[in-house]
Amino acid sequence: MFQGKVKLNARFKRTQIEAFVESEDARDAAEKLVAQIGETASLTIHPGTAATAARLIGTAPLGDILIVELGAALGPAMDRIKELKEAGSRVIAVGHVNDIPTYQDVLDAGAQEYLPLPLGDRQLQISKLLGSVAPDTRTKAQSRCIAVCGVSGGLGASAIAENLAVAYLDAAGSTKAKGDLQNRVALLDADLEFGSIAADLDTDLTMGLLDALLVPERVDDTFLTSTMATPLDGLYLYSASVNDPSSTSEMEANLPSLLRRCRQSFPLTVVDLPRSLLAAQPELAEELDDIIFIFGPGFSSVRNCSRLVERVSKSSNPPRFSYLMSKRRRGAGLTPAEVKQALNISDLHELPESASDLARASLKGQPVRRISKKGPYSRAITRLMNDLEEPVNLGPKSKRKGLFGGKGHNK
């Protein structure tokens, strides 16, 4: 988890269960367990045994609970369970040996429970298997997802997403040892037709994004890290363009599944989210912890923001909203006070024009924070990041409506 001033906070939505199994009986056991838990759990199945899971210690984040098959060599399997337990994993072991000594050895090694295979129609004691999954079995950072959404074109939303991701990466690097697995951030360009982040960062398109959206159930940490680009140390990027626009809708419908998978693998995911996609699928907001709405100081831009906020607010579990006024487009030149009144909000961030820094960054294929870390643009991004880390302040809700009829949605 990031330390110091930046403390990542997030909701915990599902118990993430990862199974490392090689037999059909073990696979059936894992699926039976998740089915009995219900919608509060999700399952990812990997081929392998306890030894496979142990090899991932220190190289990839693991789920809240691990289901591991012992394999043929029981002695080494006990050692692997001990290693997983020492690494902080909650382990359920399964195997085809059904005797009391094996059961006791597995528990002594640190497993939560041992299930002899096949399970058949046996009902599982879910509470015993799960125990109480402590909130810190997964770091808070592993569940953070922030979306950046420009309510109209030409506001620089993609650049803001890039630089916000790098700001978080810098914050992690300043307080964590180099090479720490938590010192990494995912950046996802969700504009499948006109996404520009790969070009902005001078890297090749990552066509693995399209594969991940077509078959999200096959995505695991290995797939993500092998198909994402790394334009900067610790920054993992997905940015690609579809060749066949007719497949765009199908891929966009699977974006929530990909976001949930990214939560398992990365401390933080920043999404460049097109306004058209959010407007068409406002339920996407339920997969996010924060949405930053980017708009200009013009009447139409502010109105677009108000309408989009109103639509997303109707979702059953909306995220926290933040507001950033970009001065790249002057519009009507509304003042911050006028914008706050129009949107009925109390907090507003402003992003200076910074045309020179943006042009230099574009020529170098780098984020602005890498070519002018102390410039006004970078400082504004840092203030935004720090504000995102402040606790949610519900406070008394204002009954006053904004100028465009919106009720606002303050932190």
Automatic annotation (TrEMBL):
InterPro entries: P-loop_NTPase (IPR027417), ParA/MinD_ATPase (IPR050625). It comes from the Bacteria. Coiled coil: none annotated. This is Pilus assembly protein CpaE. Keywords: ATP-binding, Nucleotide-binding, Plasmid. Gene3D superfamilies: 3.40.50.2300, P-loop containing nucleotide triphosphate hydrolases. Residues 397-411 have a biased composition (Basic residues). The lineage of its organism: Bacteria, Pseudomonadati, Pseudomonadota, Alphaproteobacteria, Rhodobacterales. Residues 391-411 are annotated as: Disordered. The keyword Nucleotide-binding applies.
